Amino acid sequence: MRLNSRTAIAGSKVVLVPYRKEHVPIYHQWMSSPELLRLTASEPLTLEQEYDMQEKWLVDEDKLTFIILARPELENKHEARYHHTDDHDQHHSASQQPGSAVPLPVLTLTPEEISQLPMIGDVNLFFKGKPSEPEFEVEAEVMIADPAYRRTGRASESLQLILTYALTHPHLLVPPHSFVVRIGMENEPSIRLFQGLGFEVVKTVEVFGEVELRLRLNELNESLALDEFEGGGEKDRTLREGDGDALQHAVEGPHTTWIKGVELEYP
Q1: What's this model's pTM, rounded to 2 decimal places?
Q2: Which residues, in sequence order, are CB contacts of 149 under 8 Å at separation 6+?
Q3: Does the structure show a pLDDT above 50 at 220?
């Protein structure tokens, strides 16, 4: 999708960037794994085919794709570059009251710094039909290809970032009830992941060995918004400490509070 071709979205654990040619060799290496091919129900492609696919996905208006880059774990919560307002790990947001703010670190990443972060997976939304049609749906998928980064909360945060992007971007504004996930019945970790974000199993398709989950949300709370301010002669987008200044588009659901990351221009 051209919409996100120059957009990066930064969270506290990950940065989402558009899928570009420089990502293809690593992505192709991942998709040579029989395990990942099975879990993603994909067919193996040659490197040339992978490059063709990347170019196609860049312009397809029914696919929103981001590559997931891992931000380093913060050993010192009060490190100068990253100021936390809360010592609780964002991964434990399910224990918070619905609609409560989830603090994020102050963002100081530049495009050059982002380009040095390790590539660990991808997260996608597939648009089926038109929003005006009753059968319109948006299917979500996430893959953490590097085993070292699984079970670290990065898949959850990546989903929160892309889903809130689709919910709130003025050119998308996807209705919450349109989000759907289809997962193999044996893939219990993925099922639990989506359930923790407010998805509920609505259908079991025995013939395909998969379950279908749909998002159930109460309301979108946008009382706290992105703060833009002048800095260094340029208008910067950042996160600032304090309840009134912190970026927070919180989505109130049955299980958890979501966060919306910081959108950055990614040249």
Answers
A1: 0.77
A2: 70, 120, 121
A3: no
